[in-house]
Amino acid sequence: MIPQDFIQSLLSRVDMVDVMDRRVPLKKAGANFQACCPFHNEKSPSFTVSPTKQFYHCFGFGAHGTAICFLMEYAGLNYVDAIKALADQTGMVVPDFTAPNPVSVL
Fold first, then answer.
1. Which of 34, 59, 78, 85 is deepest in the core (most CB within 10 A)?
2. pLDDT (tens digit, 9 = 90+) per residue, 76-95?
3. Measured at the alpha carbon of residue 23, what is the angle toward residues 88 and 54, in degrees to the nearest 5?
4. Gap between the Cα atoms of 98 and 106, Å rounded
5. 3 state SS of 89
6. Is the Cβ–Cβ distance between 55 and 14 less than 8 Å?
7. How far apart are CA 45 and CA 13, in angstroms?
8. How many CB atoms lie within 10 A of CB 54?
């Protein structure tokens, strides 16, 4: 299991706007950024990214979450791979998270 404190540290270092803008062209809209949602077809932008909250939300589709959630949904990555991708992007090293060996009782 990846330690929760590492995940929180990672999310605090990630620039949510940069993560999204690499995949979905964002436009400044007040304090936030917006675009047409990458998860469904639309003509008017309903996809909003809040750099202060480090969160995205699509008002048309209902998709929302952190940078980890976005990579999982957009790129089809699993949870661990999304964390590794963000860690690589920020220069962080994911701690070894090998599961302990189960104790066998004879």
1. 34
2. 999 999 999 999 999 999 99
3. 70
4. 24
5. helix
6. no
7. 27
8. 16
Whether 50 has a pLDDT exceeding 80, the answer reads yes
DSSP letter for each residue of 7-70: HHHHHHHS-HHHHHHTTS--EEETTEEEE--TTS--SS--EEEETTTTEEEETTT--EE-HHHH
Average pLDDT over residues 8-23: 94
The answer for 55, left when phi > 0, alpha when psi is -120 to 50, beta otherwise, is: beta
* Owner of token pair 């979450």: 65
Q: Which two tokens stand for residue 16?
A: 């949510």
Q: How many C-beta atoms surround the C-beta of residue 72 within 10 A?
A: 18
Distance CA 41, CA 14 (A): 27
Q: Token digits for 26?
A: 């964002």
